[in-house]
Structure formats: structure tokens, C-alpha cells
Amino acid sequence: MNRRRTVRVPASSANLGPGFDVMGAALDLHLEVDVVETGQFAVHTDLRIARDKRNLIVRGFAALASPDEFEFTIRSDIPLSGGLGTSAAAIVAGLVAADSIFELGADVLGEATKIEGHPDNVAAAILGGFVLCVDGHAERFEPPPGLECLLVVPSAAVRTQKAREALPSRIPMADAVFNIAHASMLVLGLARGDLGLVARGLGDRLHQPRRAHLYPKSWELVQAAKGLGALGATISGAGPTVLVWCDMESTGVVAERLHERAEGWAQVLRVPFTPAGAVARF
Ligand code: HSE
What is the whole-number distance in angstroms between the Cα of residue 14 and the centre of ligand 1? Predict the structure, then answer.
């Protein structure tokens, strides 16, 4: 009785433009849960999320162990309108709590990917930093010095399931080639610390143009970002949040311009990338 853990998990931005379902980055916003063995099941939170066994933290925990004797107290500063990996953070929090309490050494990435359906957000949430997901494994790396981001978070939500349904099962060869080219350029730019290459690598033809009708204002902003002084912008995950990529020299100016553009429909947040992934403490 009375085993307990507090698990803290970062938000994340998936896809990073061309890296659909492959690339992600952890962000310095967090979901935190206290998991305490009290002998009964309960979920406590002020957030507008499920408080029964549909809750994603509980589902993550239940994938490894019974949640029946545990109470879950949940806090989060991750905006809920979409694109910042809240569901991934929740699933990972539950899995990490159960893995740590029962000392299981579980394949948290594999289990989280099964529940979430794609690996990019869960990998960033587990490992922190930037991630590339390939063949069921994730490679983590640090972003280059001088790279910063701003988030433009619309108040109107987009549901990930709807965004996934908007994508076709087949795509033209030219679109596949376009994304391979840009993803390669982006990774080279990130690895070399060459922000010019990063800017040239942000293009995507797989998901953003096909989902644009779900987040028209966000899409307009993605296209305007370079003109506002940013390196570029990408739809964060399935949207509608926009990740605006900046050279640290111009982040302040870009933020001011974004505040004007976002007036009335979105908030602009200055959030660092974070090197830290999910952590469980006693
Ligand atoms: N790669 C996923 C998608 C991320 O774009 O559907 C969802 O958060």
C-alpha cells in the first residue's frame, strides 16, 4: 500500500513539416500526474478530460498493470486545442508510472505507440529533445544552438482522428519525393547546425495541404511565416497549433508580428525546446 510516483512528461510537436509520423520535438510545457496506491480507483483533475477508465493516463497505466487500487491526480499546462501531444504525454505518463512502480522494464515506446497509433509524439515525450522514429525505434538528438520556436495556439480545436481521416491511403510519387528531399535537408540542417538548411527543409506535401481545410488560419500563417522573419513554420502534429521556427536573433521581432496576426483567434507562446523527456520521481 501507498506506493506512489509523480511523473512529469513534456508536450511535443510532431511531423516538423516533412517528417510525417517520423519526426518530433519535445517542448517545455508539461503534464504531471501523482499516482498513489490508496486501495481505490479515482481520477482527480480540474482539466476537462475523462475521469474514468477512458482517461488516457489510466489507459497507459492499465496497459501494464491494474489501476484499480490507485488514485491519479493530474495537472497540465499544455494547451488542449490540439497539436501539442497531450494524448501522447498522457499515455506515456500512465505507462511510465506503472513501469516505475512495478519495476517492469517495459517497452514504453512500443506500448505507447500501440495506444496512440503513431510513434512521433510518444517518442519525443519519452526521450525529450528531437526524435526520428524508424522501424519501431527512436533516435534522439539535440537541436542546434540558436534554434528557437514560437507556438501559435488557436482557440478552436481540431480532432486528431478527423485530421488522420483527411489523409488518403495513396499519394503521388512526386509528393513522396518532395517530402524525402525536404526531410533529408531538414535533418542535415539540424545535424550541421545550419539554420539556412533547416529553413529549406521545412516543406511538406503529404499532410499539411491535405488537412488545410481543417485549420485554414493556421495554414495561412504557415505560408506567411518566412515573410514575418521566421525560418519557416510547420503545423504542429495534426494541428491546429503552428510551430514557428526562428533563429534566436529574430525570435523577439517575429513574436511581436505574430501577436498582431494572432489577435482574436490564437495565443502566441514562447516555449523552448526541452532536452528532458518523461521522468518519474518518488
Ligand atoms: N503524426 C501525427 C499526425 C501526429 O500528423 O497525424 C498527431 O499528433
Answer: 6
